[in-house]
Amino acid sequence: MDIQHLRYFVEIVKNKSFTKSAEKLMVSQPMLTRVVKKLEEELDTQLIERSSKIFHVTDAGMMLNEKALELLDKHEDLYRFIDDIKDTKTGQVRLSIPGVILDTYFPELLRSFYALHPHIEISIIEEGSKLTTKSVLENDVDLGMVMLPIGKHPSIVTEKVWESVCKWVAPNTHPLAGKETVHLKELKDEPFITFSDTATLHDFFIANCEKEGFTPRILYKSLMPNFVFDMVAFGLCTAIMPDPIINKYKKPDIVSAPIKPELPWDIAIIYNQERYQSYATKKLLEFIIDYFKAMAAA
Questions:
Q1: Which pLDDT score is estimated for 144?
Q2: 58 and 199 in one domain?
Q3: Do 242 and 108 share a structural domain?
Q4: Distance between CA atoms of 236 and 192, rounded to whole angstroms?
Q5: What is residue 223's three-state secondary structure?
Q6: Coil, strand, or helix at residue 293?
Q7: Cis ω before 216 (30° cut-off from 0)
Q8: Could you tell me if 114 and 179 lie in one domain?
Q9: Same domain for 234 and 144
Q10: Is residue 101 classed as helix, strand or coil in its secondary structure?
Q11: Distance of CA 286 to the CA centre of its chain
Q12: What pTM value is reported for the model?
């Protein structure tokens, strides 16, 4: 049943005339006759009794008119509601993000975003990059922040927003503490604390060590930077950490040094291109990209 046909029918009942209704609707009278006939065939009942002198709406026709008016009101409400959403700029976004990225960059980012878009709600799911990628692929979230690389996924669009490197972190009493650069091979016997298995950096670090001919001695795993740096400061282990995380959490009795070969720490925002992007999702996506561009240019 076509919504436009219902609109025509309501107008016919209102005017009690095919001729007047055709003039107001700016359509032909035979067309309105065909519309009513089609409705009667679909409902298997007569809706209007009509002859040269009589125009009479049947009981079924009156009932259809009543329900059609209700439906048309709801139909108009739906369009008004959508217009209101666009005008007031509301919406919800589900964002998956590793805790270290969330803690390092997003308090200020979210404060700035909410200042511009106070009616958009962001639901944050804190999880490692590998789980974030999975959540985006399975449409459990709208956007994800990850450390690269994430592998090849045809449906995922990847927008790199930040480039940095990882450094070696150790207590200032360590024998290698004075070196300007440390090679991975020099660390083959070192005890390490790393991010947990859900973090891309965990696998990336192990893979790079294996390229240098050894498997790192990983004693502890944690996604909590404060814990990582406390363990290093106590002399219980060393770590490979992204430079921005070191700058945020580094303690006075800890030193850091670049490593060779270089371990990049690149951050990207990802989304599933096969999923519909709402107004709110597009606004957050655009804002995150622009925010990191501004940081890089500063």
A1: 98
A2: no
A3: yes
A4: 9
A5: coil
A6: helix
A7: no
A8: yes
A9: yes
A10: helix
A11: 11
A12: 0.70
Report the pLDDT value the prediction gives residue 289, as an integer from 0 to 100: 98
Task: Give, in order, the Cα–Cα distances in Å from 31 to each of 23, 27, 173.
Answer: 12, 7, 92
Q: Which two tokens stand for residue 235?
A: 């002399």
Tell me, yes or no, whether 134 and 278 share the same domain.
Answer: yes
Q: Say which residue the tokens 């009795």 belong to.
A: 253
**Cα–Cα distance between 3 and 24 in angstroms, integer?**
18
Given a cut of 50, the residues of the chain with pLDDT beneath it are: none
Domain residue limits at 13: 3-87
Model pLDDT, residue 213: 96
Two tokens, residue 102: 């969330």
Residue 216, domain CATH:
3.40.190.290
Sign of CA dihedral 177, 180, 186, 189: positive
Return the residue matching tokens 């209007």: 48
Backbone phi and psi for residue 215, each to the nearest 5 degrees, phi listed first = -105, 125
Give the amino acid at 55.
F
Q: Of the residues 32, 62, 87, which one is the last residue of a structural domain?
A: 87
Close Cβ partners of 107 (under 8 Å, ≥ 6 residues apart): none
152 and 221: one domain? yes
Question: Residue 77 sits in a domain of what CATH number?
Answer: 1.10.10.10
| DSSP notation for 11-72 | HHHHHT-HHHHHHHHTS-HHHHHHHHHHHHHHHTS--EEE-SS-EEE-HHHHHHHHHHHHHH
- Examine the fold and report which residue of 87, 111, 129 is the final residue of a domain before the chain moves on: 87
What does the pLDDT look like over 152-189, one tens digit per residue? 899 999 999 999 999 999 999 999 998 999 999 999 99
Place of tokens 């770590």: 239
| The pairing of beta strand 120-126 with beta strand 55-57 | unpaired
